[in-house]
Amino acid sequence: MTSITQDMRFRLAVIKYADKYGVSKAAARYKTNRQYIYRWKRRYDGTWDSLRDRSRRPHHHPNQHTEVEIKLINNIRRRNPNDGLVIFWVKLRQHGYKRSITGLYRFLCKQNLMAVKPKNPKYKPKPYEQMSYPGQRIQIDVKFVPSSCLVNEAKGQKFYQYTAIDEYSRWRYVEAFKEHSTYSSMQFLEHLVKAFPMPIECIQTDNGQEFTKRLSPGNKVKTPTIFEVRLKQLGIRHKLIRPFTPRHNGKVERSHRKDNERFYATHTFYSFEDFSKQLTTYNKRDYNRFPMRPLGWKSPQTVLYDFVKYGVTYV
User: Fold this and answer.
1) DSSP result, 169-221
2) Predicted TM-score of the model (pTM)
């Protein structure tokens, strides 16, 4: 419902007073001029709408678009409905259009001729593949230790955290290294195989140089890395995630985020040996024994132990 303004009430009061006592007395009473009263008396037809302010917009403008320009704009827009403002303006200029881009923008807005943007295709993720038993697939990734955690002798050095997470039980194995390379990855793999109580069928990693040379520009003959060779010797399948898609390695990425919040934010390391010792203690005490919601509030260590010993399934 359209509101009735204070100005409209004032004009109605002036008109009624003028009808009863005359225009001159109404002008003196309401402190206005007679022309004002005569004008609103002519407009008033008994409705509130007749007392509203009319648009002061001019009916014509000396610089408005000509019929030829309007026809050109309509023709180009009909052929290019999805072009943005700049591209559309350039195409008009190529056909002899002389006006500025701001003038074109105002005209398109008034005529409702702005570009019709097609909807972006929605990303439809594949349904998550649930693991059926421990060792079916293990995610591996490398985390750079924050430099702010390194003090005294360790200051200025670079340490790395290798992380492996079993997708079924969320059991995690971590190890500290002074470098991230294919040799370090191979060493970590051998230690992981010894530490995990069940056979490992598949290892999933990203496309980093420490795991594969798949995306290396100088690797035209697809030479396997030491890590890949060792996987083949152990009979373990190597699965590479899609490039630049870390969410496909989501479990290990999430664990690294938790490490920042629960470990690296409150710890400092004086040497590599100190870092390695603290990391091992944290993983055994604060991660593998920490209850998790996806596991029915069981800890990864409990889930893995129960499956190995009793065949109990929680997930």
Assistant:
1) T--EEEEEES--SHHHHHHHHHHHHHHSSS---EEEE-S-TTT--TT-TT-TT
2) 0.63
The structure tokens listed for 228 are: 């890949």
Q: Between helices 85-94 and 101-110, what is the axis angle to 10°?
A: 110
In this predicted structure, what is the pLDDT of residue 1?
A: 44
Contact 145, 275 (CB under 8 A): yes
3-class secondary structure, 162: strand
Q: What pLDDT shows up at residue 267?
A: 94
Name residue 163's amino acid. T
DSSP 260: I
Which residue in the block uniquely carries the two structure tokens 């009979």? 235
- Which carries the bigger pLDDT value, residue 118 or residue 44? 44
- Length, in residues, of the chain: 315
Return the half-sphere exposure (C-beta side, CA atoms, 13 A cut-off) of residue 29.
16
DSSP-assigned beta bridge partners for residue 141: 163
Tell me, what DSSP letter sits at residue 145?
P
**CA atoms of 70 and 48, how far apart (whole Å):** 38
Beta strand extents in 8-156 (DSSP E only): 138-144
Give the C-alpha separation, 30 to 113, whole Å. 48
